[in-house]
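Ticket reopened. Same input as before:
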Amino acid sequence: MIVLGVTATNGIDQELAAILGARHVVVEHKLFPDGESYIRIPVDVSGEDVIVVQSTYKPQDKHLIELLIAIDALRDLGARRITVVIPYLAYARQDKRFREGEGISIKTILQTIRANGADDLIVVEIHKEESLKFFRGRAINIPSVYALAEYFKNMSNLLILAPDKGALKRAKIFAELVNGECDYLEKFRDRVTGEISVKPKSIDVKGKNVVIVDDIVSTGKTMALAARKALENGALNVYAACAHALLINNALDLLKNSGIKEIIATNTVPVPKEVKTVSIAPYIAKAIKELYETR
Ligand code: R5P
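Engineering reply: fixed in the latest deploy. New output:
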């Protein structure tokens, strides 16, 4: 088995190769003067099982194109089975037509990856698991809660807070893993302006260590709003935990200014040093082993 790192792996390719005892290879990559990507597979992959690793954080389109070029090359070069690991899968939040005429980006992306030659797909904490139906092969979503909960296992008096009802299932699993309680807020997003608000709702967080858990922190507005609600209601400390800490623009400052004590994320995307990370690689490796044992 070969683990092939493309251009945006955040070290997960290396970790996977070490855990799986597989050969680690990195693509040869350069940019042409006009900015176009050049990708070369530097080893013979004919007849090999190849695990291709590429996260799709910013610049998302560039990283996606580089992944597609790599998969296509592997197929041409005779790889036996191509398993694509995308730790952070971009474009997943537009998973339906919220307004008439909108494109469903996750459908476009997953159909393209499959059509290009991917046999299996592994992603981490996709926004909605149902979206994987657009990939017409075996597709696995790795939840991030098991890795995140490890960080809190020695902390007591925990209450896990979902920033919206959609995130409640994740928060419930988290709460069970850390022997904590669980609650949720009711968040609304204006589909045109993107502005968010929280419906007044009483949450019993007095004296608690509150962990707000979400899939993505992008602008940080959701987390900051939820943190303020928790602190207003008497929380002792507030922690932010997420799978993908994208932290665009001034998100980090927004989180710090909202009173959040620590931010904990998995390593699906690179993060600033202020963010504590837990590795998702062991969980991906487990999924790969199961995938190859059950083929
Ligand atoms: C939305 O449904 C997601 O689960 C996250 O809550 C959202 O993407 C966070 O975005 P932001 O950090 O920009 O508020």
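The mean pLDDT is 96. The two ends are 15 Å apart (CA to CA). Please confirm and we'll close it.
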